[in-house]
Design brief:
The protein is mainly α. It is built from four helices and no strands. The protein has one domain. Helix 1 packs antiparallel against helix 2 and helix 2 runs antiparallel to helix 4.
Length: about 120
């Protein structure tokens, strides 16, 4: 199982980046732009969502990979490229769609706007 449904940067790496920005710019009294403050707030919101949803997403991601008989996303991608799943393409689309949805729930849930086309409706 992959164990990394949200990829990189990890939650720890995101927190580290915000901490370093605070230490380097905020604490030293350097001028802080509102834009950078919003970026830091957005990064921390991503971390909050990953802490809240990550364990469940990790479990579901592992189940999806197991259902397809692959160890991780790299093996899945290689199998798709090699045509290994051509006879199960609808199943693969569904499982990949679910993985993308989980990623967006953490990265930016606004991208899941109901007006956006379903990934299955996009041109191939």
């Amino acid at each position: 199982m992959s164990g990394r449904p949200h990829g990189v940067p990890t939650a720890a790496e995101l927190v580290e980046a915000v901490r370093e920005w605070i230490e380097r710019d905020v604490v030293t009294g350097a001028p802080v732009s509102p834009f950078h403050a919003r970026v830091a707030a957005n990064v921390l919101a991503i971390v909050e969502r990953e802490l809240e949803l990550g364990a469940e997403h990790d479990r579901r991601h592992g189940e999806r990979l197991d259902q397809l008989g692959v160890a991780d996303d790299h093996e899945l991608a290689a199998g798709i490229r090699a045509g290994r799943f051509d006879d199960r393409i609808d199943e693969v689309r569904t499982l990949v769609r679910e993985s993308v949805r989980d990623k967006l729930l953490v990265a930016n849930p606004r991208y899941l706007d109901a007006r956006a086309p379903d990934i299955g409706d996009l041109p191939r």
